[in-house]
Amino acid sequence: MPRSRSNPLEPPRRYFKELRFRQFRAFREVARTLSFTEAAETLALSKASLWQQVRSLEEELDTRLLRTESQQVSLTEDGALLLELVSPLVESFDSLKAVFLDRRRNIVRKLTVATTSTLLAHELLAPVQTYRQTHADVRFTFVEKPSKEALPLLETGRADLAIIGSLDESPWPPSIEARPWTHYPFVLMCGSGHPLASQSAITLGGLAPFPLLFPAQATNARFRVERIFQEAGLLDALNVVLESSSASVLARFVERDLGVAITSMSPLLAHDLLRNSPSPSPLHLRDLSGIFGTESVVLAHRKGRHLLPHIAEFCQLILQSPTLQFPIP
After folding, report:
1. Where are the beta strands (DSSP E) in the chain?
2. In a structure prediction context, what are the per-residue pLDDT tens digits for the chain, which is 329 residues long?
3. Which of 40, 73, 175, 182 is at a distance of 20 to 30 A from 128, taking alpha carbons?
């Protein structure tokens, strides 16, 4: 027997008549993945149900949020605006259970940080040691990835925080909040007897003829270096003989006279390389930030998400930790 309405004069209510939170969640997941199939799998829904929720949201807001052409999904201008607005809302709601259980002391405290191997070995070493002295109950996991590969771990919830490099020309996703911590200058590494070591001024044209050791393709440093050479019309003339995401690996090859390296570098690493080298040092470092700028290092988390107290305290410790800006000639 059909269920009677409490008010017989009230018109029948459509299932998606009013905005519902699950519509926002459905839209946000499709907008994040740009795939109905992937979003449906993540939310454990059928594609038909997912499409219906997004379509009802478009009807309620009287606008088009997504374009679907040749099975490619993209955001409209209104879709990009809504994604920016709903991402913090979804994150805030999804984190409520964890906050509640944490207040009741019913969960094991965990902290997963996506970061680079260089940051782990240098800038993060001291603050993590300090944090462990007062938070011995927190189960730490570090996921070592180049900065560009670490960000998706944060976006998909596989990491609580990301401490990574960032370039000014690379916009942040609307779901991510990033706070500046320190920066890495771009440097030239060459042998102490190399012709570049004695030059008073380094130019792009002067660098181009030499065998070059470059950052790996997945790194911010590679993107910046290639962009600068491309703008100067020199990219096609370069002879790149080796690539690595590790500045310390590049330094080892420079010491063996296999080329000259251009990369962003931790000032702490630069300090260690020169301090631990024999005297006279086989390695010459030159600050190239006047040509290539710097790579910012930021602490990022998902926007709107309730940070558990032990995670918020780690963020505060990191942002207040002094970082060495070792002067490079």
Report:
1. 66-69, 72-75, 110-115, 139-144, 161-166, 176-191, 211-215, 239-244, 260-264, 283-287, 294-302
2. 344 444 544 444 444 445 588 888 888 888 888 888 888 888 888 888 888 888 888 888 888 888 888 778 888 888 888 888 888 878 777 777 777 776 666 567 889 999 999 999 999 999 999 999 999 989 999 999 989 899 989 988 899 999 999 998 888 888 899 999 999 999 999 998 999 999 989 999 999 999 999 999 889 999 999 999 999 999 999 999 999 989 999 999 999 899 999 999 999 999 888 887 666 678 999 999 999 999 999 999 988 877 888 999 999 999 998 886 666 66
3. 175
Q: Are strands 110-115 and 161-166 parallel, antiparallel or unpaired?
A: parallel
Bridge partners of 299?
A: 163, 179
Tokens of 123: 């800038």
Tokens 């063996």 correspond to: 256
Q: Which two tokens stand for residue 151?
A: 């960000």
Q: Is the peptide bond before 11 cis (omega within 30 degrees of 0)?
A: no
How does strand 110-115 pair with strand 66-69? unpaired
Taking the C-alpha atoms of residue 153 and residue 185, their distance in angstroms, rounded to an integer, is 26
